[in-house]
Design brief:
Layout lengths: L3 H38 L8 H34 L2 H7 L4 H42 L1 H6 L6 E4 L4 E8 L5 E8 L6 E12 L5 E12 L8 E12 L3 H6 L8 H6 L3 H24 L12 H26 L11 H14 L4 H12 L1
Antiparallel strand pairs: 1-2, 2-3, 3-4, 4-5, 5-6
Helix pairs in contact: 1-2, 1-4, 2-4, 2-8, 4-8, 8-9, 9-10
Length: about 375
Amino acid sequence: MWSTVDRYFIAEIVKVFAAIMVTLLLVVASMLFLRTLEQVNVGALQASMVLRYLGLQVLRDTAMLLAPAAFLAVLMALGRMARDSELIAFTAGGLGPLRVFRSVMLFALPAALLAAWLALVLQPYASAQIQLIEAREDDEATRISGLQPGRFYQQNDGALTFYAAGMDADRRFTGVFVQDRASDPPRLVLSERGAHLLSEAGEQRVVLENGQRFDGVAGRADYTLSYFARLTYFLTGGHAVQEARWRRPAKPTEALLASDDIHDRAELQHRLAAVVGVVTLVLLAVPLTQLSPRRRGSGRLLLAFLTYFAYFNGQRLAEEWLTNGVTPVWLGALWYQAVIVTLVLAALLPGSYAFRRLVAWLVGR
């Protein structure tokens, strides 16, 4: 059962944690929103998909924010208690560092469970949905439905060029120009109006009205010019959508567990790092805030920042070494957490009370 002390520690940490998470989510969402607007501006994403696309991106990245947010929350909450001598008062009352560890773990374990749900379940789901949206936007039909007038658009490495001078009140293109270099023979189409249509059965087509079609290469005998009142292009797509389901970030966790591929194992451990990292970083934050009343905290603050950056750089390094065969498969990609914990504790050991007592005892002999 939680004691009054446990509830006090958890309340202080949760308040800071909530503020940090809100701040991080706002920063991430604003950056992703700007990138999404750039995609809309170049016609790579329909305006109607902005909110869904942005929401999925934020959901995908939330799991990776929990570990640093929990670390900073515990560091700031306990740091404030250390400056106000609250930790010293708790120690004087018989509640030593182990009691602080217990209270912090009561916060860390639920946060780790939340990170597990986000990283192992929601993150691959959001990644899959993002990839499906991107794949649909790459399909010819979807790209045309999201085009904006007054701009040139190219597909298939420039083989297909589309331009519409304007758009009327019925959202039909006017002054349409289409150049298809991939067709045999090459084709150029000019029309007064055009529209993208979707039938109830899901069949997509582009209908051009009152135009001219030029087939072949100008100057050759087989060059033809024809006039049309109505020209229909039937669009097919969906191959990119099928391929997107097999990209690694979108694979379900169950599929990664059953796979022997080294890249799948690295992806699985990348997700697990978000879960284990919550507990690891929270536990490291406790000794980083345990100060005596006569010591300044600037040194440990610097060590806390070094720990934070070393942790996430070590994560990327361990995953690259695993996929490139530098480290053995049995070692995995989570070993860096044990290394960082060992280094931090070794750096804090000379300033600990037990170490000073041991040194004094050895010198006294």
